[in-house]
Amino acid sequence: MGLGIKSVLSIDKNPTLVSSQRLQTVALVQKQRLSKARLQVAGIRYDMTEAEVIKRLGKPQQRMYTETEQCFGGPTSTLTYPELEINLGADRKNTLRTYSVKTTGTKFATVDGVRIGDTRQKVFNTYGRADETALEYRPGFTYISYPASKDGLVYLEFVLKDGCVVELGYNATIC
């Protein structure tokens, strides 16, 4: 996962923190993967076209368009709205489709109703218990993800601080 994750030493009813100099990891039992239909934030579904996104949310504050051969082999686009960022990449037909949505805004939620400010327990009650990882590059923040593909490269993700969601979204690792 590239987040500097240490291995877990124990799992029990009250998970044990495993310390290192800059990283702590809590491991919890993870349930089955999510369906891709549950990858939806602010009404933006995974694999939605750019036209569908703009129709739903209106004109973005900013649109960055890049022609690249790296990863996608075609164009990419980032649409920025207040407290919402949407990344799109070209499919085989060169149509831009969503692969990543991130928000820090309280007015946006997942399709299941989890939003910024909700507790870790609400995330677990909604999606099941999952691995939680301290972020080495963001001290005090933890990360929870729920895979939505067999290979684990497409996932719903939450960043928490002090046990509350401060950022959420979905992402597909593309390269």
Helices, strands, pairings?
Blueprint: E1 18-19, E2 24-26, E3 40-41, E4 44-45, H1 50-57, E5 62-67, E6 75-81, E7 84-90, E8 96-103, H2 120-127, E9 132-134, E10 141-147, E11 154-161, E12 164-172
Antiparallel strand pairs: 1-2, 2-9, 3-4, 5-6, 6-7, 7-8, 8-12, 9-10, 10-11, 11-12
Notes on the protein architecture:
- The model is unreliable at 1-31 (pLDDT under 50).
- The protein starts with 17 loop residues before the first strand and ends with a strand.
- It is globular and about 40 Å long.
- The chain is built from two helices and twelve strands.
- With 175 residues, the protein is mainly beta.
- The strands form two sheets. Strands 1-2-9-10-11-12-8-7-6-5 form a ten-stranded antiparallel β-sheet, covered by helices on one side.
- It has helices spanning 50-57, 120-127; strands at 18-19, 24-26, 40-41, 44-45, 62-67, 75-81, 84-90, 96-103, 132-134, 141-147, 154-161, 164-172.
Side by side, the strands of the main sheet go: 1-2-9-10-11-12-8-7-6-5
- Note the beta-strand portion: 35-45%
Secondary-structure element pattern, one letter each:
EEEEHEEEEHEEEE
Mean pLDDT: 79
| Count of distinct strands | 12
N-to-C CA distance: 12 Å
Query: What characteristic shape results from the CA principal axes?
Result: globular
Can you give the helix content as a percent range?
A: under 10%
* Class from helix and strand fractions: mainly beta
- Could you describe the largest sheet, including whether it forms a barrel? 10 strands, antiparallel
Low-confidence stretches: 1-31
Tally the helices: what do you get?
Answer: 2
